[in-house]
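Tokens for DUF1076 domain-containing protein. Go.
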Amino acid sequence: FLNMSTTSFSNNSQELAAHSSPGAPAIFDTSNKQQLVDKIDLCSFSPNVDELSCTEDNLTCPVMLVVPEKGVFVKTGPESNICQLFDETALIQLIIDGATHPVSRAPLSLDMIINKNECYFDTTKGNFIIP
């Protein structure tokens, strides 16, 4: 399903254009997709249970259902303060496919992709949140 490397999409508008859905909403046009992929590249990191003060279950990607080698925090919606960790490659594939957030069904946008330092694990809520 996701056999494409992240670097094949980074800074490569032609590749994104080739994968664009003709009927996709304007939010998923090639330049928006490229901006999303660029922000993912900037915000991706190697998740570590000890560093993030959570269990391995809390690091499971909702798409791949495994702890990603390279992950990125994504808010569940534009107005949400709750984040989930996604596998970087799975998230890029969702963007290329013009898909919405797999949990909330909100359109994926730049403000939903969050830097690692902006989220922390709230043990009382059992979620990553933006304070």
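DSSP finds four helices and five strands in the chain.
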